[in-house]
Amino acid sequence: MANTAASTFSLVFALALGLMIALRVWLALRQIRHVQAHRNTVPQQFADRVELAAHQKAADYSTVRTRFGLILLAVETLVLLTYTFGGGLQALHEFWTARLDGLYYGVALIFSVTLISSLIDLPFSLYTQFVIEERFGFNRMTLKLFCLDLIKQTALGLVIGTPVLLAVLWLMAQMGSLWWLYVWLFWCGFNLLILFVYPTWIAPLFNKFTPLDDAPLKARIEALLARCGFATSGLFVMDGSKRSAHGNAYFTGFGKTKRIVFFDTLLGRLQPAEVEAVLAHELGHFKHRHVIKRIAMIFALSLGFLALLGQLMTVAWFYLGLGVSAQGTALALILFFQVVPVFTFLFTPLMSGLSRRHEFEADRYAAVHASAEALVQALVKLYEDNAATLTPDPVHSLFYDSHPPAALRISRLAASSS
Ligand SMILES: [Zn+2]
């Protein structure tokens, strides 16, 4: 009985994995074909704003990254299959269960899986940063900084991750059949705490934040903030240029600890009116409560997933179907987090669609409270600086893109300013 259910689940998982791979490959090939087919002409709408060379650079950058994504997909699949059907997780379980028990066993098992994944990822992130980003002129990182970041991230992961993992495994073992509810409450509390301490304690470990001291720009931004009724604990410039030439601006924190952070790379490139428009867009996200909505949605989804895990953890076919003959809290956690993305992949377009709707709302807000034309200029510059393609494949974009294609955003902004 358990074996029939297990083989059925194996089959369902294999089919879902096959479907995900087929979709990802199909979308990637569409994207490459579409971008390359439009490589030699700047779209009419951008003809007087974007040079052909910049357009071609964006096409090549996008093609190289998409192709590299296919290699990553192959590696990811191989790792997943090795852990499950290949018996990798079973072997790790046997290794640790002979040496440790209880919470120690669980922590050791999860840390070894994390360590193995990080080691496998390492050559690929090195290649991304020092070959792909370098080739297109975006890399500003030295190998020394890369290693330093890695050491800091690992230390931070251990310091924060160990107690969290211990707490989760303890709750799973001690709280009976409703453990998932306790883990969920703990998880939400932990995430809110991280959101709260991130700007002041964690981000400064990786970057320097200096108060914005450009007086005319500051005055301009403060006027915008007053117009929009927005209170902040400060405007900061972050030294993003020490890692990458890509530019950005964002908010962090909550309530009174809210900070606005500009990448130095963004300020170096945009005119004051354009910075104002980009910030107005970010304020739009805030005023439309996009951040709160997103957090609420993630919390609701994680409750659903934890409840599901609560059921799966107790049935033998879940483990057996994924190539593990033992059962337990740590094993269930690992299998669940390996396997769930395969099934949730199909919902990617829903999340991307929601995100794109939020982008349009934020653009509309910016058009009302700042200048739509300045935002268009800023967007064109940012697309160019990030070598983001102006001609994505429509299906690929519909599926993945968190931001609407440039052409669509700009034509809506142009319509709102005229
Ligand atoms: Zn946005």
Can you walk me through this structure?
The protein is mainly α and 418 residues long. The protein has helices at residues 2-37, 52-83, 88-97, 102-135, 143-174, 179-206, 215-228, 264-269, 272-287, 290-312, 316-320, 329-344, 348-369, 372-385, 394-400, 406-417; strands at residues 209-211, 235-238, 249-252, 259-263. A four-stranded mixed sheet has the order 1-2-4-3, with helices on both faces. The radius of gyration is 24 Å and the shape is globular. Helix 4 (102-135) runs antiparallel to helix 5, helix 9 crosses helix 13 (348-369) and helix 14 (372-385) runs antiparallel to helix 16 (406-417). It starts with a helix and ends with a helix. Zinc ion (ZN) binds at residues 281, 285, 359, 362.
Number of E strands: 4
Which structural category do the helix and sheet elements fall into? mainly alpha
Portion in beta strands: under 5%
Listing every helix as H and every strand as E from the N terminus to the C terminus, the arrangement reads HHHHHHEHEEEHHHHHHHHH
Mean pLDDT figure: 93
- What can be said about the biggest beta sheet? 4 strands, mixed
With strands numbered from the N-terminus, the spatial order across the biggest sheet is 1-2-4-3
Report low-confidence residues grouped into runs of 5 or more: none
Assign an overall shape: globular
> How widely separated are the two ends?
68 Å
What is the overall number of helices?
A: 16
Bound ligands: zinc ion
Percentage of residues in helical conformation: over 70%
| Rg over C-alpha atoms, rounded to the nearest angstrom | 24 Å
